[in-house]
# Entry
Amino acid sequence: MTAPKKLFIKTYGCQMNVYDSERMAEALGGQGYVETKSADDADMILLNTCHIREKAAEKVYSELGRFKGLKAEKPDLKIGVAGCVAQAEGEEIMRRQPLVDLVVGPQSYHRLPEMEAKTRAGEKALDTDFPEEDKFEKLKTRPKASRGPTAFLTVQEGCDKFCAFCVVPYTRGAEVSRPADRILAEARDLVERGVREITLLGQNVNAYHGAGADGDMTLAQLIWALDKIDGLERIRFTTSHPNDMGDDLIAAHGACSKLMPYLHLPVQSGSDRILKRMNRSHTAESYLRLIERIRAARPDILMSGDFIVGFPEETEADFQATMDLIEEVNYGYAYSFKYSTRPGTPAAERAQVDEDVKSERLQRLQTLITRQQRAAQDSMVGKEVSVLFEKPGRQKGQMGGKSEYLHAVHVEDAGIEVGDIRKVRVIASGSNSLSGELV
Ligand code: SAH
Ligand code: SF4
Ligand code: F3S
# Structure
């Protein structure tokens, strides 16, 4: 028997890329590859890339440059670029970095085995099509290996919203929802392999409208179907768009006990003028009213968001409106970014805000967000939370996991096992996590 070939995958970007990397490893598993944690002993290196901001895309080229020595030592080593940079730049990648053998876009991962064979024959392989066939159907999962207690599951992909700053509609294509029966089968399979928490993924996950037995299903209907799976204890979903937060989904937050009280609902800006220029088709006011309704259904829900500062033409008054909105919502968590021009998107052509101004605004915004985050975490002290334990903590004898609000929690106790869900009383709030004791 020949020794298995080794595959090293490095994943950048969003959770969907994490999910995709697992699928690519499975697809190449059929070609005799096993995963390795080090690039040095790999026969194939795959970078699963992100194109969302300029820095993310540039990282890929500096990483590729570092493989030069490795490839010189090992001529049989194949190097591939997958993900959103692959989709956006295609052949250009091979031109800019000739040591790349393979470029594959996110819609073509099921074609990886043929592409790999092509590289073994000494040819370059490129595929950035948006094929007709269903890649998820073709990416049949491998023999059942047991796995950790949490998993991602892609239910919807692509985006039709075309926010003026964003590359996703171009790199991931039009919005497509997977049929409900396939998702449910995949969820059952995950649960059989030890998964207790599933995070449903989509660039616009709450726009889900996959085929069900009686016509298209909403995300809320899908969640209720998942709720019936014995052994599945927790359901989460990300990322949502404010305009797709249906009444049934809001109601599910109050009624479905497996649906966790955490919601990531990006708003991007608090200025209506900027929101309009961003093509977001919601206002600051409509977003605030929406959060009121969500909190009416589930008062303890922890809200998180995304913010872009320094979008073209953003004035100090516009930025102040964003700060006011943050004050009003009171976030438990948030991601914030300086606007980054993306070639081919409408906002790239507009009058840009000075880099210094962007940096200064980002700093002010992050100071406010950090304060809110801290307060949300500190407010857990003395409360009882439920924790799904995922792995041993940093210190010996500790186990770490996540509360229903997604706070990291660690507990000193030798008796806890990975996959356990236990009631924990929070006793202290540290810099990035809570500590507690079993109830
Ligand atoms: N589909 C999700 C997330 C898309 S990308 C959504 O609609 O919210 C994740 C985040 O990256 C976005 O929410 C936005 O805040 C940020 N982002 C996207 N394009 C950007 C750009 N050109 N510059 C800076 N941040 C950007
Ligand atoms: Fe990008 Fe907007 Fe679509 Fe989100 S909704 S993926 S920000 S275009
Ligand atoms: Fe990045 Fe593509 Fe995800 S651009 S954020 S990897 S969808």
In short: The longest strand covers residues 384-392. Residues 384-438 form a domain with the OB fold (Dihydrolipoamide Acetyltransferase, E2P) fold (CATH 2.40.50.140). Residues 355-378 form the longest helix (24 residues).
